[in-house]
Amino acid sequence: MLQGGVSTKRDATLNGDASGLYTANTLSVASSRPPPPRAPSNPPALARVAVVDDDRLARDRVVSLLRARGHQVTAFESATRLLEAYKQAAFDLVLLDVVMEGMSGVEACRILKAREEGFVPVVLVTSRADPDARVEGLRIGADDYVCKPFEEEELLARVSSMLRIKRAFDQLAASRNRMAELAVLDDLTGLYNVRYLQQRFAEEWKRAERHREPLAIAMLDVDHFKLVNDQHGHDVGDAVLREVSTRLKGSVRDTDVVARYGGEEFVVLLPSTQLAAALVVAERIRKAIGSRRVETARARLDVTTSIGVALYPSRGVSSKDQLLRAADAALYRAKEEGRDRICVHQEQMYVFLPEDDS
Fold first, then answer.
1. Which candidate, 343, 341, 303, places its Cα nearest to that of 223?
2. Is 346 found in the same domain as 209?
3. How far apart are CA 130 and CA 356, in angstroms?
4. Is 86:118 a contact under the CB 8 Å cutoff?
5. 88-97, 104-113, 136-145: segment of lowest average pLDDT
6. Mean per-residue pLDDT for 279-294?
7. Considering the domain boundaries, does residue 167 fall inside one?
8. pLDDT in the model for residue 8
9. Burial environment of residue 1 by CB neighbours within 10 A (0 to 12, 13 to 18, 19 or more)
10. DSSP of 274-311, one letter per residue?
11. What pLDDT sits at residue 3?
12. The last residue of a domain, from among 119, 152, 181
């Protein structure tokens, strides 16, 4: 039985070692796979328009007019119904009658504009043509104003104008999101880069110190990676790193932070994680990477990884730099012990040497 309640597949012997390193190449663990990250959405091909009017004839006229132009239109007889549906449905444009029983279109517009789920243009439609009514609507956030009775072509032109603004806004938001992603992601693997790792590491360390919570870190290295580049070329090496990254991401939890540390080295931050759970994650990673060959355009390769694990709090670890160095030392020991194994730096000061997997 390992420290923390993680059991091995067979009996093993414990041997003292002043280095404080604990090595293993087999652990009995369960596997779980977090859902894949959600891809950014693009503006829809057809606009989703909400038409709100308590006058059925007026509502039906607008609905028919917009559907004839290919838009996906949802009709509501009250502002209250719109707001209820708005929690579940996404719209690209809202046409709101101002004067309705119950909640007015102006009040509904104020509520919609107070939300933070991106930009949705709102066009107020009313029979009140006086300037004060228009000023009131625009002041509370309406994007345009149409007076009844309206010309159909004028309404369609205003709708088209608002939808162009909506699409331009969405494209700008998507570009900003993409730029933000590029600032923290590694170009080759899609994992977080060192800059983001350093930022999150500092945050998680402060949280662990403040709340006296455990913080584990796993550092891993692709075994004999230089031979891959030398024998098959850097394009195959890049393909191996991408596949290793995919398997690595599929082996961790949503709360874990996975980053490419440089070259063929990776780091996984494991917040609020005790030693036993950190070993479970590390072994899941080791098996996922080595479980099947990596298929590239020019080669089918057996790929393994060596993993070093360190934990805070533990003896000799009182800073985040010491925690990182402890994981690095454990990784070095794992490679010395024969690679394709896990080595843990911990205060008990012993080394676990199991039999081979075979």
1. 303
2. yes
3. 86
4. no
5. 136-145
6. 94
7. yes
8. 32
9. exposed
10. -HHHHHHHHHHHHHHHHSSPEE-SS-EE---EEEEEEE
11. 33
12. 181
Give the domain CATH number at 271.
3.30.70.270
In a domain, 42, yes or no: no
Kindly state the tokens that stand for 147: 């007076």
Count of CA atoms in the C-beta half-sphere (13 A) of 234: 2
Q: Tell me what pLDDT residue 35 has.
A: 44
Query: Among the residues of 185-211, which ranges form H helices?
Result: 194-211
- Looking at the fold, whether 83 and 159 belong to one and the same domain comes out as yes
260 lies in the same domain as 154: no
SS3 121: coil
The CA distance from 94 to 118, in Å, is: 14
pLDDT of residue 204 exceeding 50, the answer is: yes
**pTM for the structure as a whole:** 0.58
Same domain, 146 and 194: no
The one-letter code for the residue type at 216 is: A
Residues 234 and 322 both lie in one domain: yes
Question: Which residues are annotated as catalytic?
Answer: 264
Determine the structural domain holding residue 267 and report its residue range.
14-32+185-352
Give the pLDDT confidence of 2-30 residue by residue, as tens digits.
333 333 333 333 333 444 454 444 333 33
User: What are the CA-CA distances from residue 253 to residues 2, 71, 284, 308 (Å)?
Assistant: 22, 41, 11, 18
The CB-side HSE value for 198 (13 A sphere, CA atoms) comes to 6
Assign 89 a pLDDT band (cuts: 50, 70, 90): confident
pLDDT higher at 111 or 14: 111
Non-local (6+) Cβ contacts of 259 within 8 A are 186, 191, 192, 193, 194, 196, 197, 266, 267, 268, 269
Residues 6 or more apart whose CB falls under 8 angstroms from that of 205 comprise: 215, 312, 319, 320, 323
115 assigned to some structural domain:
yes
Write down the mean pLDDT value for the chain: 83
The length of the chain is 358
Number of folded domains that form the chain: 2
In terms of domains, do 202 and 88 share one?
A: no
- Shared-domain flag, residues 146 and 282: no
Contact partners, residue 195, CB within 8 Å, separation at least 6: 183, 184
Rounded Cα gap, residues 246 and 145, in angstroms? 50
**Is residue 126 a contact partner of residue 87, using CB atoms and an 8 Å limit?**
no
Residue closest to 10 by CA, chosen among 276, 307, 358, 286: 358
Provide mean pLDDT across the span 159-164: 93
